[in-house]
What we know:
By secondary structure, the chain is an alpha/beta fold. The chain has helices at 17-33, 52-55, 66-78, 162-170, 184-202, 253-261, 264-267, and strands spanning 3-10, 38-40, 81-90, 96-103, 109-114, 120-122, 128-130, 142-145, 150-153, 175-177, 205-208, 212-214, 220-222, 226-228, 234-237, 244-251.
Amino acid sequence: MSEVSVALIQLRTPASQGAALAQAEPLIRQAAAQGAQLILTPEGTNILQRDRAVLLPQLKTVETDPCVQGLIVLAAELGVWLLIGSALVLDEQGDPVNRSLLVDPQGRIAATYDKMHMFDVDLPNGEAIRESATYKPGERAVIAQTPFARLGLTICYDMRFAYLYRALAKAGAEIITVPAAFTRPTGEAHWEVLLRARAIETGAFILAPAQGGRHEDGRGTWGRSIAIGPWGEILACAEDDEPGVVMASLDLDAVAKARQAIPAFKNERAFTGPDTAP
C-alpha cells in the first residue's frame, strides 16, 4: 500500500480520564468518517495533571484506565489503526510511565513504547520541569509493523535526540510518530524546525499530533499539530492550538525517493574522536 490517509487529533486534554475520553472520541469518529486509516492522538491523551500529588493517585494500568480502554474499543468499532500517542499509566511493576500504544483495527495492542528521554529543563520563562521525578523512562526503541508502513514510535522531548530517529530510520521506519504536549515557549521557538529536521535527516514521514491551549491544570501547550514529508515539506498542519482534526495523505514511495536522492545512511563514515587539541 503506497498511499495512506492519516489524521492527527489535536486535543486539550482535561485532568481526568473520563473527561479525556469524552473529548477525544468525537474527534476520532470525525477522522474515521473522513477516511483516515491511521489516527494519532497526542502525548497525555488520557489525562494531563502537572500536580504530581494529584496525578499519581489517579494513574491506572492500561487494562483499567477508562480512557485507554474506551479508545481501544473505539478503534475496533471504527476498524482503524489508532496510535494513542501516549497515556500516562502504571506499568507492570506499578511504576508511572509515559506510554505510546498502537492499537490495530481489531482492538489489539500491536506495540507499545515508553518515553525514553525525560523533560528535565529550566525554561527561559522561569518554569522548571522535572519529568524524571514522576515517570520511569523507557529503555528500548520500538518499530511497529502495519500493512501500510513501518512506524517508529517516539514521544515529544525525544525529538531533540537525533540519534534515536536515525536508529529508527536505519532499522526500517518509514513513518516516525511524535505525539507531544510541547510547552508554549519551546513550541514557538523549536517545534516546527526540529520536526522538519528529523524528517530531512531520516527521509521519513513525521507525524506529530499535539496538545494545544490552556489546560485545566494551568499549563499551556503549543498545538500546531503537523505532518511532514521525507523531503521536509509540510503536508498539513493546524494553524493554532484549538482541538480538531488534521488530515494528510502520505505517498509512501516518497521515502525511497528521498533516501535515494540523499543517501546519507550509505555515505556515513565511522570516525574517531573528537580529540582535544593540546
